[in-house]
Fold this sequence. Notes:
Strand content: 5-15%
CATH superfamily of the largest domain: Response regulator
Radius of gyration: 22 Å
Number of strands: 12
Helix content: 25-40%
Largest sheet: 7 strands, mixed
CATH class of the largest domain: Alpha Beta
CATH topology of the largest domain: Rossmann fold
Strand order of the largest sheet: 7-6-8-9-10-11-12
Mean pLDDT: 90
Order of helices and strands: HEHEHEHEEHEHEHEHHHEEHHHEEH
Structural class: alpha/beta
Amino acid sequence: MANSARGKVGRYLAGALLCVVSLVACEPSEDRPAAGSTPQPSATTKDSLVVGLVGSLSGPTSWRGEDAFEGAVMSVGVLNRNREESAPTLELVTLDDEGDPDRAVELIEQLAESPRTVGIVYAGPPEALPMAESALAAAGIPALLCYGDLYGARKLSAHVFQVSPSYLWESRTLARYLSRDRGYETIGLVAEDSPDGLGATDSLRREADRAGLRLKRVVRYQPGASSFSDAIAVLREAQVEALVVHGNPNEAADFLGALRSKFVRYTGTDDARIDSAPRKQRRNRKASNYWRPQILGFDLTISNVTDQSVPVGMVASDTYARGAHYLPVPSFVKFTDAFEAWWDESPTGWELRAFDATQMIGWAQARSADGEDLAKVLERMQGERFGGLPVTLGPDDHTSVEQSTGGLWTLPPVSPEFPDPNSFNWVPLARGFSIDGKRTSVLPPDWRYLFNNPPPRAAPAPRFSKMRYGVVSGAGDPIR
């Protein structure tokens, strides 16, 4: 997230968050300014409907709430601008959970007590959200998770939805790449010691087994850790050929920086091989301190916070909507244009997730009858497209991300196309968006915007080698 936006949130937090917030006990002031580009802890008018945002706006995970706020507040503005004249105005009420799951539950319950609340965008500790199900059910409103995975942990509930990709699907993409594309045999994982980290671990272990890989070593670290020397020593001893990183952008950047300081260098697939190396080479490398693993990551490692620490050849998983800031898909362009008009800068974080979550709440509210459970209305969504990819939900499907839209991202070398190493330069690894290693898994409506000479929608998908964006190379690429 850009520094100018962080400043907006920081100035607000220095004062407004010192207040005790209560939507039930505190009536809004008539002369209070309307919500704009700074978080508001309570509604500013008496007749508006409230979209709640509960997220971490302070502390080491403040990136989470800040990105969500930027996407959500702009989304509310778009909803209000496009509403029918007789429709009620929506307001975003933003509450800081400070990264504390118990506080997050209390804030969700507080929002749910107000009859004006129509839904909650959630950008706090994922493990808190299932504990708020009873309050959400009593109010008949949905809460939408922006970061983390409850689907893979089987903890989504009747009123809890998810707009982030599942670790299960990300792990499947990573494991398929490591096994089929790179031909490794052993992998390691460094993961946050939290419910979210445990979910990522379970998903990767399951998918590694499916792909014929051995998850040789798992190292857990405490949330907020900045020292990883011991973890690196354990992983070095295990001599894993590839290493997957789970954690938030700050943790990932610190870990990647620690690898660099320990002179852990990936120089190519053949140099990373140990268990999968030819017999003599395998024996020699196992008998030494040799270790040059390829590094991979889950979605939260794709960040401008990590850019300067990313080693050569690193890849990470997310949907192709992660490139909304530069891929010319019409829904992405529309979102980015609106974001730039609002914030005077481009989106480079996960603002799109909160934008879409807010749009989904607005969609359900606009189609609901008085007293109707808005979560049930949301389950009727079929193929709606807001700023990202099409969203289809149902009684047994509370995730907005389709498995097939996930793929791999990487950082290209500095080139005329990406000349600034200080900008957000993550790009698609084209063959990472291919299930069979030949044809793309990008959705048919978007072929025409991302591929050269795309076929008709009803035809077989184009080969990934025809993608016009990112790194387009085959499995013979020694680095990626």
